Structure formats: C-alpha cells, structure tokens
C-alpha cells in the first residue's frame, strides 16, 4: 500500500536538486511501514537526514538527562513501545563513537537514498549536505535543504526550515502493553471533515515582521465554517515556543489534523484556532532563561505580548472572523515559552478566557498565592490543563507551578506524557488531550472532570 509519494525536479537554492519521500505499508516488522528518502545532488560528499528526525529510545533507558549516552537506537532496531525524545545533534563531540543512523548512501550519478522502518508519528526533517549539525547548517548556503516537493507551511518565506510527513500506526507491529504510541489522531481526516489553515496579517504598530507595523499569524477554520449564516465559533489561541513562530503548530504539529479529528469524533464543537507569533512585535530583544537553558533571541516579555495581543490581535480577529466574543467560548494555550504566555493570560487577562492549556510551561517564580485569589476570584473558576513530558527539561518548573495552583485551591487537569520530552510529539499529545478532556467542558471542574472515556 503506497500512502504518499513525492517527486520534484528542478532547482532548489543554488543546487540542481530533486527529492522524494515515499511511505510504504509493508506488512512486516519491525513497524509495518518503511519510508524511502531520495535526494539528488551530484556535488554532495555526504548527506544526513536531520533537522528534527530523531533516533529512538525506550522508557527503561532514558531519564531525560542520560538519553544522549544511554539508549539511542537505530529505527531498524525498533521494538514496540520505543519512542523518540528531543536531541538536536547527529554527532555530539562527547560521543565520538555514536553514529547517526539517518545517513544516506549515493550512487555514481549523485542519487542519495535511505530506507528505514518508522513507527507512528509526525517526523520533521531536512537534508544536511556536507554538514553534521543542523543548527550550523545554513539554508542560505545550501548545507540545509528542505525537500522541494514537501514545502513547509509558513507565513513568511524562510520562517520554517524543515519539511514533515506522518507515518500511520500498525497495531500488529507497534502495539505495546507498556506504552501507547499511536499518533493516528493527527492523520488526515476523511473528506468533508477537513478544515483549512491560512496565513493572515494584522495591523500592529511597532511590529517589524513581516513588514513595518504589520504582524502575522495563522488561522484554522473548521470544515463547517462559513456554511451556517451568522454562526460564531469557539476560539482557541495556540502559541508557539521559544525560537518558533505562528506556523510551527501546523508545520511541525499538524494542528489542523488534530483539530479535524477532535471535531469529527465530537470531542469538541467546530472551533477556530489562531496561532499567533510573539517574536518581532517590536525591535526589543535580549537574553532570557527558561528551564536550565539560556537563549539570546529577540523575544519581548510576556506582559508586553499580552498587552499587544489585547490591543491589536484579539480585536482584529473578532472583527474579521465569525468567532465567539465572550470568555465562555475562548481559550488560550501554548507550549514552553508559550506556556509562560498562557500563565500570563491566566493571571492578568483572566476575564478574557475560560480555558487555559499550559504545555511544557517554562514558568518561574513568583507564582500566584492565596492573596491573588482574593483579589482575582475568577482564577478559581477556570478550566485549566497543565501538561508536560516525563522526560521534559521543564518538569521541575511545571511541578512548581502545580504546587502553587494546589496551594491556592485551583482545580486543573494534569497530563504527564509518558514518552514526552520537550518536543513536538509531546505537544501533539497534549493538544489532543486538551481537546478531549478540557476544552469547552462544563465549569467549574470537579473530581469527575475528564473521567469520560475518550472516543476513537
């Protein structure tokens, strides 16, 4: 069974290049599927597949700190229950004996190929040409090449540097009594159930991207949108994290597919999703720290982003789309630094939203306390999810946030993704369960909230 085959011939950047990715159902182990990569480059000396795709591990050989040195498996050695966690480098200096599994082989005519079994999941990737480490491989010089016929979804050219594809689940070869790694909720929904995703720009004085006083976002409109006159739809704002932008959720997380299936299976009513960008809202920038990592990137502080969104983004969306305009059918969620922004919205824009999803929240003290709830009793009446991966480097921060919420008496739904690190398979999982267990569910939350068995 051939699921998807891509072939492009032409010029990519300064290179004569063509490429294809083919996903085949094999009916044999280790996963039931194989993926064929083909890339043509007659001048390349070495080509790796990197830029997002990872080796595998299992729950017995990773702690979130020792994974790099203890349990990175070639996908050809896959066993049911294996999963991948985030790791940026094909070759680390501290691991001279480790060999990156995704290395292509070439023929005399410059055709580079690689075939591998892969289990269920969404995989982002790029071709690393004569370059071993994706962050050092520039797209401008041709050392990092995006598949020319799998172009990423992006609002602004150059904002995304990886293509992506999805492999289905085969329970004959991938089912595990130890761990469920079925990501089929992000496959294409049947015809008639597919919404659309499109880029959009709004006026934002002081913004510098993609143009002066203009800022960008992406918007998902469910399949039903526009078919019922004057109907207004629930609205979810879904934020990216550090180093990302508003196209990440669609390009790397297949957000529209997740939403299509949540709606199709009646976990939620048809819902509009806005994925905004919080970078380049002005020319400010600086160094910030989250988790145990330091970054120097142009990121405005969360209060500034909140104020900008309240003043410009939120009114623009409400004026231009048929969306709900009261808190009961508005939600805000985000991953990593977007989780920090979600916490900022929860504390300081409490009355705008009734639902909040903090995915891998990179929050830090000080947190709210009992006096905060006295001054803002609305904090106690919201639908909240706090979610993070078992191997997530923000695990301690997320637990500290939960401790603060517990001390105030705020009820929330918790999700610890059992295979999760600080990466997209974690955030896809958390978006799915946010829809199943939290979004638009009756308030206030009680001990029975989220106990209804999931469909599908």
Automatic annotation (TrEMBL):
The keyword Signal applies. Pfam families: Esterase (PF00756). Keywords: Signal. One of its GO terms (molecular function) is acyltransferase activity, transferring groups other than amino-acyl groups. Gene3D superfamilies: alpha/beta hydrolase. Residues 1-19 form the signal peptide. InterPro entries: AB_hydrolase_fold, Esterase-like, Mycobacterial_A85_antigen. This is Carbohydrate Esterase Family 1.
């Amino acid at each position: 069974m051939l699921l998807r085959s891509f072939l492009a011939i032409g010029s990519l950047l300064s290179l004569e290049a063509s490429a294809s990715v083919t996903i085949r159902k094999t009916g044999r182990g280790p996963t039931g599927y194989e993926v064929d990569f083909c890339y043509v480059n007659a001048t390349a000396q070495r080509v790796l597949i990197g830029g997002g795709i990872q080796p595998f591990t299992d729950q017995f050989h990773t702690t979130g700190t020792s994974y790099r040195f203890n349990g990175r498996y070639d996908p050809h050695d896959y066993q049911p229950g294996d999963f991948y966690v985030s790791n940026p480098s094909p070759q680390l200096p501290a691991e001279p004996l480790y060999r990156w599994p995704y290395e292509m082989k070439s023929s005399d005519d410059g055709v580079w190929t690689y075939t591998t079994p892969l289990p269920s999941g969404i995989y982002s990737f790029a071709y690393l040409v004569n370059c071993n480490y994706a962050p050092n491989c520039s797209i401008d010089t041709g050392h990092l090449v995006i598949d020319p016929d799998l172009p990423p979804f992006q609002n602004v050219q150059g904002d995304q540097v990886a293509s992506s594809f999805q492999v289905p689940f085969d329970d004959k070869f991938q089912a595990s009594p130890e761990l469920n790694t079925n990501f089929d909720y992000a496959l294409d929904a049947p015809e008639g159930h597919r919404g659309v995703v499109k880029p959009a720009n709004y006026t934002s004085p002081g913004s510098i991207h993609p143009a002066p006083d203009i800022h960008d976002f992406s918007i998902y409109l469910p399949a039903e949108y526009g078919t019922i006159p004057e109907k207004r739809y629930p609205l979810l704002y879904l934020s990216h994290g550090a180093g990302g932008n508003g196209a990440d959720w669609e390009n790397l997380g297949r957000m529209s597919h997740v939403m299509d299936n949540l709606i199709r299976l009646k976990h939620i009513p048809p819902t509009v999703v806005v994925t905004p960008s919080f970078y380049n809202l002005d020319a400010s920038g600086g160094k910030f720290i989250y988790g145990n990592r330091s970054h120097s990137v142009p990121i405005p502080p969360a209060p500034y982003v909140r104020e900008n969104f309240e003043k410009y983004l939120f009114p623009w969306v409400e004026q231009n789309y048929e969306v709900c305009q009261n808190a009961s059918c508005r939600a805000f969620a985000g991953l990593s630094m977007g989780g920090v922004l979600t916490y900022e919205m929860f504390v300081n824009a409490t009355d705008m939203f009734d639902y909040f999803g903090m995915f891998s929240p990179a929050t830090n003290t000080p947190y709210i306390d009992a006096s905060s709830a006295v001054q803002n009793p609305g904090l106690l009446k919201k639908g909240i999810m706090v979610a993070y991966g078992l191997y997530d480097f923000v695990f301690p921060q997320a637990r500290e946030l939960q401790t603060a919420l517990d001390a105030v008496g705020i009820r929330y739904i918790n999700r610890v993704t059992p295979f999760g690190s600080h990466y997209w398979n974690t955030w896809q999982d958390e978006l799915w369960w946010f829809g199943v267990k939290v979004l638009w569910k009756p308030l206030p939350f009680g001990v029975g909230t989220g106990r209804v068995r999931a469909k599908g």
